[in-house]
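Give me structure tokens for this 373-residue protein.
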Amino acid sequence: MDFVSLGMFIIDEIHYQLPRKPDLDVMGGAGMYAALGARLFRPPPSAAGIGWILHEGHDFPLHIKSTIDTWKTTCEFIQTPNRETTRARNTYGSIGFRDFHYLNDKIRLDENSLTPTQLTSKSYHLICSAQRCRDIIDGILARRKAEVKTETDTKIRHLLTQAPVFVWEPVPASCQPSELEECLNTLRFVDVFSPNLEEFGSLLGIGIDLDQLSGWPELRQRCEELIEPTHSPRRATAVIRLGEKGCYVAQPGRQYFRLPAYYEPEASSTAVDSRADDKREPADRSQKSTGRVVDPTGGGNAFLGGFAIGLQHSEQANMREAAAYGTVAASFAIEQIGVPTLGLSPSGAEMWNGVSVEGRLKEYNRRLSEIRI
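Here you go.
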């Protein structure tokens, strides 16, 4: 398998200011969106290499099951007939107000949730606290080691002995200064560490304002302090998700760069190259938005699914390429409430929201080449 998410599946209901009616039975959850982000780049038969897990309650909507089936992923449905499917309520108000809370008990996933097939994955997406991240990684590696001893298929044995890529998305509640030491300890065990900007600042106990001239140099400095300390070896690349400003990638000892979002705001945007002088803001790269952003929910999760697949596209784990994959994946996640619509072109090629994923990736890379990123 190429990718497995251990994030949850949630059925959302989304409430707005009156008189707009709520949207009910909306597919959601970090695991689902991460799987979607990876799946965008893996049409059948490769779609079966994308794995995720959900607990199917007695109330599971048939239309959601039908949508998932069309993706052709390896989704493990765990039957829980004595309970409802995990549900949550999102409430949007004026001036950026948003409230989120679960409507029933959630069921977390761990290494024991993985099927034997999912245990062979090349990469895993974990969304959890630092300690739980280490526990799950230890559990996955222990299970893989145990499976090798009894597995007779040479190909599967080979997959189980390869080191998987671990992509860690910290939960917001664990991003606070009291958890910083735990986070630093965990960076030794993951390949990608990806909070959003607010979570990153909260973890360090600071605020980073990228609209200020000092914001970008400070972001780089804080990333350097986090991932390149001299007293302890760490291998994690920090990928800070910046919403409408794109992403910032800090690869230890190698490169620091920013890629713009696919849908950029009307205000001018900037592109940061690893060669840029830390003490100045990078050159202005203005780009108008197409106005197709409908709901940012799940964009960051989809980004990480796409990022993980992008890492596998070249033998030498090209971080710029991975970030481009992630950016394009996020663009499809935020164009509507819920998930994009899968269809086929007249020639039989996959289209999501009527657009070719490969075509959008090529178009985005062309934009990057024009601004020399």
